[in-house]
Design a protein that fits this description.
10 strands; 12 helices; DUF4253; alpha+beta; five-stranded antiparallel β-sheet; globular; three-stranded antiparallel β-sheet; about 325 residues
């Protein structure tokens, strides 16, 4: 499910308007009008387009950013490099009480700089940072390679994550922390603090083994986009949110709280982290909620991204059939 489909739009004055016309809605006001909608239908888009044209304005889709070419080596931002982030020691933990699709009893050892072979999977040249290893070039067939690495995760302890190249991944990392800090986090309290209407958590759904086996099958790797592949040493996919501090870049939750919520969805719906980028997160969901839980999960979803204001009734319907969730924070 693409949660944000038509929000990245801006308006430009039509050349024939002959100048600024006073007394009409401003560009920002018109833009806010469409942003206030969710799951925008073609009819709504046409109505908005007609209104823009009526007032002598035209809609200009926002151009996709040029892909960033990663540079060899771990090029952290200067302010972050001064912190001298130390890699976490390898960690051995017991399996969660609630079964999850992917688990490694011991976290893995990051490959050195250069070409690497992980779990028998050959990878292009990459560089080692304090909390992950990332390819130095965009990856061909990223979802295929990521799926093969995910299958080897119980043995390697390195979880694959795809990052769309709109930023240099190394410049996005600002901090890292021990995922164990998420152990005592009360997920219901966190979500209720963001939205008091979250009175209880959705019960969860049985995981479908075939879907769970390939969490990257539903990943939308558009040919227009390019992806770096990150390997993160964790015991479970949700924990990458603790080691990739700064990628999500939200002030609403700490990294430990983000990790705890992701762990909870991992246990209840088999959801695993498949993609991160600056201000964005993608999860694979092999066990969509049943009807009685969909409304509850929709409320959790909206609490997780308070900026979005997504219509919950439509979101609940979408969640019942969706095998992927995308989140974006401003």
């Amino acid at each position: 499910m693409i949660v944000v489909a038509f929000l990245a739009v801006h308006l430009a004055r039509h050349p024939s308007s002959g100048g600024v016309v006073t007394g009409l809605p401003t560009c920002g006001e018109l833009d806010a009008r469409i942003k206030a909608q969710t799951n925008v239908s073609s009819e709504a888009r046409e109505a908005f387009r007609a209104e823009c044209e009526k007032h002598g304005w035209r809609m200009v889709p926002e151009a996709s950013p040029e892909p960033v070419v990663p540079s060899p080596g771990c090029e952290l931002a200067e302010s972050v490099a001064k912190l001298k982030l130390d890699p976490l020691p390898r960690r051995t933990v017991a399996a969660p009480v609630h079964p999850i699709p992917f688990f490694a009893a011991r976290t893995g050892e990051l490959p050195p700089d250069g070409r690497a072979v992980v779990g028998g999977v050959s990878l292009p040249a990459g560089s080692r940072c304090p909390s992950y290893w990332a390819t130095d070039v965009p990856v061909d067939n990223p979802t295929v390679i990521a799926a093969r690495l995910a299958a080897k995760f119980p043995q390697t302890g390195l979880w694959p994550v795809l990052s769309r190249l709109i930023d240099e991944p190394d410049r996005t990392l600002t901090r890292l922390e021990d995922p164990a800090r998420a152990n005592g986090v009360d997920v219901l309290r966190v979500l209720r603090g963001l939205d008091p209407r979250v009175e209880r958590l959705a019960a969860g759904a049985p995981t479908q083994p075939k879907r769970a086996a390939d969490p990257f099958a539903a990943f939308d790797d558009s040919p227009a986009d390019q992806y770096a592949l990150l390997l993160v040493p964790v015991n479970r996919p949700a924990d990458v949110l603790s080691l990739l501090g700064g990628f999500i870049a939200t002030d609403y939750m700490s990294d430990a709280e983000l990790t705890a919520v992701a762990r909870s969805w991992e246990e209840r719906f088999g959801a695993v982290v498949t993609g991160v980028e600056s201000g964005g997160l993608t999860l694979s969901v092999p066990a969509p909620p049943r009807r009685e839980d969909a409304a509850l999960l929709a409320r959790e979803h909206n609490a997780f991204i308070p900026d979005a204001a997504i219509d919950e009734s439509q979101l609940a319907l979408d969640l019942m059939t969706s095998t992927q969730l995308e989140f974006g924070w401003h």
